[in-house]
Amino acid sequence: MVGAAVFIYGLLVSFIFSGASRNAKLRRPNPPVLTYVGYVMCGITAGASLILSAHVVSLSLGAPLLNLTI
Predict the structure, then answer these.
(1) Integer Cα distance of 26 and 20 in angstroms
(2) Residue 34 — pLDDT band, cuts 50, 70, 90?
(3) Are 47 and 69 in contact (CB under 8 A)?
(4) Is the dihedral of CA 64, 65, 69, 70 positive or negative?
(5) What's the gap between Cα 5 and its chain centre?
(6) pLDDT value at position 64?
(7) For 14, how many CA atoms within 13 A lie in the half-sphere containing its CB?
(8) Cα(58)–Cα(42) distance, integer angstroms
(9) Mind telling me which residue stretches traverse the membrane in this protein (predicted)?
(10) What is the distance between the alpha carbons of residues 64 and 23, in angstroms, rounded to a whole number?
(11) Looking at beta carbons, which pairs linking 30-35 to residues 24 or more positions away fall under 8 Å?
(12) How far is 42 from 35, CA to CA, in rounded Å?
């Protein structure tokens, strides 16, 4: 299930980056939807990195923050 989510996330990020770079090359403004989705993707990435960093710190202290198993 995580693999499908990562795949869809990667496709969406690739679409956002390719659209933004194409608009920059053609010197056109980005559509608002492209900008908003880009900010959402940036927020998801930052949030996931903070949660995983907190989990790693809590594991090093001996009290896991999340009960994650792989």
Answers:
(1) 10
(2) very high
(3) no
(4) negative
(5) 11
(6) 75
(7) 6
(8) 24
(9) 6-24, 36-57
(10) 44
(11) none
(12) 11
What whole-number percentage of the chain has pLDDT above 70? Answer: 96
Query: Collapsing DSSP states into helix, strand and coil, what is residue 21?
Result: helix
Number of residues assigned to the chain: 70
* Percent with pLDDT over 90 in the chain: 63
Query: CA–CA separation, 19 vs 34, rounded Å?
Result: 8
Mind giving me the DSSP string for 24-42? HHTT-PPPHHHHHHHHHHH
Task: Label residue 14 by pLDDT band (50, 70, 90).
Answer: very high
Contact status, residue 38 vs residue 20, Cβ threshold 8 Å: yes
**Per-residue confidence (pLDDT) for residue 65, from 0 to 100:** 73
